[in-house]
Amino acid sequence: MRLGCAAYSYRDYLNSGSMTLEQFVDSCAGMGLDGVELTSYYFPSTEREYLNRLKRHCFRQGQHILATAVGSDFTQADSQKRREHVRMTKAWIDHSVVLGAPCIRVFAGPLPEGVDENTAFRWALECIEECVDYGREAGVAIALENHGGVTGTAAQVQRFLDAIESPWFGLNLDFGNFIGDPYPDFEELAPRVITTHAKVSSNFGGERRDLDYRRIVRIISAAGNRGYLSVEFEEEEDAMVGVPRFVEKLKAAVR
Known about the structure:
Elements: E1 2-6, H1 11-16, H2 21-30, E2 35-39, H3 48-60, E3 64-69, H4 79-99, E4 103-106, H5 117-138, E5 141-145, H6 154-163, E6 169-174, H7 183-189, E7 193-197, E8 201-204, E9 207-210, H8 213-222, E10 228-231, H9 239-254
Parallel strand pairs: 1-2, 1-10, 2-3, 3-4, 4-5, 5-6, 6-7
Antiparallel strand pairs: 8-9
């Protein structure tokens, strides 16, 4: 498997302006990573000139742009707001094509107050299906993250995977976003994994514990996936210290 890193790992630095996306890419190259996930939140521009320049920088640093990522919310009760997020996601599919990213990470959305889960699921499904169709035409896969709300459990995620059987749709499996023993969930969902978010730890039923990445690599590899373990660092430790340390742990697990 390959190793990458999501720009979100350095969100404090990127949000403050003390790090640019180019410097994030340089940092990943310095750690000997294979690729970068470029989160939409941190782009200073989406003009073609800037996207081309950033793509060239990644190429020169030997970093594959493994994915882009958006903060989509397809469960909003206001249908016009859902449409806005579909348009935003389609725009980022277009940006992904320019950047050469084969995949875009999306969220389904939270469960709004006063809305039953079946209704929220239908809203999100309709939006995601439209994005998958658009992504198929563009050659960009849609990776739905298990991210709480209507995707908080393996069963909720599987409901989307069962409803959309397109080869251009699958899962961005975040190893730290389930509650309880996550390993059976990883095994269940592994066949539809497109990419991943590698967290240091997870909530094992109220107790925060480090994840076993040797076990995780075996599970994902057994499903035929040779793609990315992409670091998404959320520990309290400074990312400048914590990310490189975690990367070394992942390298050992992959070896």
